[in-house]
Amino acid sequence: MEVRRAAPVKLVVPDEYCDDLHETADQFLYCANEASDYCWDNTDYEDCVTSNVTARDALYDRLREETDLTANLVQEAIRRAVHAVDSGVDRWKKGKRTNKPEFTSWSVVYDKRSATFYRNKISLSTVNGRIECDFELPADSPTPYEEYVLSDNYEFRTSTLQYDQATDEFYFHVKTRKIDDEGEAVEVEDSDDTGHQTVLGIDLGVNSLAVSSTGTFWSGDEYDHWIHEFEKRRAEMQQRGTQAAHNALLRLGKRERAWRKQYIHTVANELVDEAVTHDCDVIVFEELTDIRERLPHADWHHIWAFRRLVEYVEYKAPERGVAVEQVEPDHTSQRCSHTDCGFTHEDNRDGEQFRCLKCGYEINADYNGAKNVGLRYMRRRQHRLRSSPTSGSADAPVDVRVNGGMLNGDGYRPTADS
Fold first, then answer.
1. Distance (Å) of CA 359 to CA 353, 371, 375, 381, 404
2. What span, in angstroms and rounded, lies between the C-alpha atoms of 6 and 174?
3. In this predicted model, what pLDDT tens digit does every residue of 2-32 receive, in sequence order?
4. DSSP strand E in 86-192: where?
5. Exposure check for the chain: N or C terminus, fewer CB within 10 A?
6. Can you give the pTM of this predicted structure?
7. Nearest CA to 393 among 383, 380, 401, 379?
């Protein structure tokens, strides 16, 4: 597994270049949607195009003729569409609801040929040629940009240019990967090896932002409190309707976004620390697919927090030797995690409490879900290794780290210090 990092950086775009970037984004989205139309088939997923080479050969010349984009931007637009279609086909095969991908959010994907980095500025390809924009970097050092983009230990992969309409600001999200002295990607131990593993399961929810299988809770109360405070303050400013209130509203939005990111970064750091403290090799989350349907009472800021938390852990954990995996979310909240039970029923859960209708096991519902997430990974890995003729392992040993001990296929085993 490669060690990857992302570095967000704000651009200072001269007024005369803003229209160039907006037009570039419009044409980029046009290409992505044209590619999506070509690749998607509503009748049979087997007729969908999931090969980037096939789509590029069919569309590249036409899209180059119809737009003013450079070759690399056209290719990135096609690649984005193919990736989205491939993900949709995967959901379709599993019987999940899916539709043709449609691209509407303002964004442009740049590769190393269409974006050139200098220490304090960047050169970008647009529909009207190259433009240069300065970076607005925080005073604190080192910044993520300095650590991961300017460092010789990381190499640039791709980046996404985004526009915040509320603040009229442009941001560049740079993706890098760690390399060694020979320029080769640095790898950490992959979670699919056949050695013994200890797993930390994580359940994500509304009342508790995250709960680990070790029994640690990250409450959502403080997060919700400050989100509501920001919303209340925003409503007050909107009622005033003055220019001063509008300017204050923009500043409040920036503070809120910075606060939310910092809060989730803190939770991600603590979650990775929890895994390291308990000698866990793997952190396991539920897949976030269809999370809006699974958590109908979750607000937009909850969904945002879940996605950012998984994203932050995915790039923080590998550097500390911990892999990150995801498992199917089906019934993890309704299944009994008690040893030798596993009874699944929707009435097992009542709000924050879980009580198994079969064996009577009672426990906090989110903690029960966190254990089930870890156990699902354990069963999946055991099945994979036992069915693989090359794994060389019939046992596929996996322990799920729980409060006071370990849980595996042989039952619960308390640790010496418990």
1. 15, 17, 18, 27, 21
2. 5
3. 777 777 788 999 999 999 999 999 999 999 9
4. 107-110, 115-117, 121-126, 129-136, 154-164, 169-178
5. C
6. 0.64
7. 383
Does 397 score more than 90 pLDDT? no
Q: What CA–CA distance (Å, rounded) separates 411 from 339?
A: 5
Determine the 3-state secondary structure of 66 from DSSP. Answer: helix
Q: Are 327 and 283 in contact (CB under 8 A)?
A: no
How far is 142 from 300, CA to CA, in rounded Å?
A: 32
**In which band, very low, low, confident or very high, does the pLDDT at 128 lie, cut at 50, 70 and 90?**
very high
Joined together, the tokens standing for residue 180 give: 């060694």
Inform me whether the pLDDT recorded for 418 exceeds 60.
Answer: no
Q: State both tokens at 209.
A: 């932002």
- Measured distance CA(360)–CA(193) in Å, rounded: 37
Q: Tell me the Ramachandran region of residue 288: left when phi exceeds 0, alpha when psi lies from -120 to 50, beta otherwise.
A: alpha
77, 39 Cβ separation under 8 angstroms: no
pLDDT recorded at residue 416: 46
Residue 287 has pLDDT above 70, yes or no: yes
CA distance 161 to 175: 11
Amino acid, single-letter form, for residue 85: V
User: Per residue in 146-179, pLDDT tens?
Assistant: 777 778 888 888 888 988 877 788 988 888 888 8
φ/ψ bin of 331: left (φ > 0), alpha (ψ from -120 to 50), beta (otherwise): left
Ranges of each domain in the chain? 4-178, 197-222+259-414
Considering the domain delimited by 197-222+259-414, tell me its CATH architecture. Answer: 2-Layer Sandwich (3.30)
Question: Given CA atoms 77, 79, 81, 84 in this order, what sign does their dihedral have?
Answer: negative
CA neighbor of 100 nearest in space, from 25, 52, 43: 43
Residue with more model confidence, 139 or 326: 326
State how beta strands 107-110 and 115-117 pair: unpaired
Q: Which of 19, 81, 22 has the alpha carbon at shortest distance from 50?
A: 81
In this structure, what is the dihedral angle of CA atoms 122, 109, 157, 142, given to the nearest 10 degrees? Answer: 50
Which residue has 């780290």 as its token pair? 401
Strand order in the sheet with 362-364: 349-350, 353-355, 362-364
